[in-house]
Write a structure and sequence with these properties.
Blueprint lengths: L2 H5 L12 H6 L12 E4 L3 E5 L8 E7 L6 H14 L4 E4 L2 H7 L13 E3 L4 H15 L12 E2 L5 E7 L4 E4 L2 E7 L5 E3 L16 H28 L2 E4 L2 E4 L2 H5 L1
Antiparallel strand pairs: 1-2, 2-4, 3-5, 3-7, 4-5, 6-7, 8-9, 9-10, 11-12
Length: about 250
């Protein structure tokens, strides 16, 4: 389903109407923006940056996920921290847009992305991962962001990608792009799974975290197998009874 149609549905009208009322009623605004920050917006995003910020064209970007009812408070907590540390960011402009992008028919490449944060370098990236996770640890988990990697078990995600708009032109299509080390434009993958460009290496802190989490995942999988073995040899999946062969599971 094309979500552009859903945006324009208004139960009070016979025809498609611009979602101005829903967008206005659920607008997300930051009340105490520092005086020296610039604010810009488009149909979906609101952007915040300092005039003197000199971001790279690409790098490790951070995404924050949120359920709609906690979006306003998460935005307050995150924005206060980012203003304090002079980190540019953008957020979905209203709760209605967030509900749509997180819905069943939302774009899998963008679903879950409520706030996008642009670290200036790898050192700042790792600092932000740890601090943001701590700040958001008591909030409910938002939707899982498919083309990012999750930091620990909270609402902080990340991937390598473009900070500034770059495109490859393929006929009438514009394909989001990044630059390789030769300065050549290559596709900025928007597949619904986490990928890292072949010329980029993950930061050491990410590798260490992944190794640690991998041990927990193996333990979790082992516990599931043991529990299934103790409970029964079959499970109900979508109304059908399937027999579990534990030998195949172990393989």
């Amino acid at each position: 389903m094309d979500m552009r149609y859903v945006q324009y549905i208004n139960l009070k009208e016979k025809y498609y109407e611009p979602p101005l009322e829903k967008a206005t009623e659920s607008a997300l605004k930051i009340s105490d923006v520092p005086f020296n920050w610039v604010i810009n917006s488009d149909k979906h995003w609101t952007y915040y940056s300092k005039p003197d910020s000199d971001l790279p064209i690409q790098g490790w970007k951070i995404h924050i996920s949120s359920i709609p009812k906690e979006a306003k408070e998460i935005l307050r907590v995150v924005s206060d921290f980012l203003f304090e540390n002079s980190v540019p960011f953008k957020h979905v402009s209203n709760v209605w847009e967030l509900v749509l992008k997180n819905s069943k028919y939302g774009d899998r490449a963008s679903s879950g992305k409520f706030i996008t944060i642009y670290p200036n370098n790898e050192s700042q990236f790792t600092f932000l991962l740890e601090k943001l996770h701590y700040l958001l640890k008591d909030f409910s988990n938002g939707p899982y962001i498919l083309n990012d990697k999750r930091w620990l078990d909270g609402n902080v995600y990340f991937r390598y990608g473009a900070f500034k708009e770059m495109y490859l032109i393929n006929g009438a299509s514009k394909i989001p792009a990044i630059q390789n080390f030769s300065g050549e434009l290559i596709p900025d993958s928007r597949a619904p799974y986490y990928t890292v460009p072949d010329f980029i290496e993950e930061p050491l802190i990410v590798k260490k975290c992944q190794k640690r989490m991998g041990k927990y995942k193996l333990l979790y999988q082992s516990l599931i197998i043991i529990l299934l073995n103790l409970l029964c040899t079959s499970v109900m999946v979508e109304g059908f009874m399937w027999q579990i062969t534990f030998l195949q599971t172990l393989k």
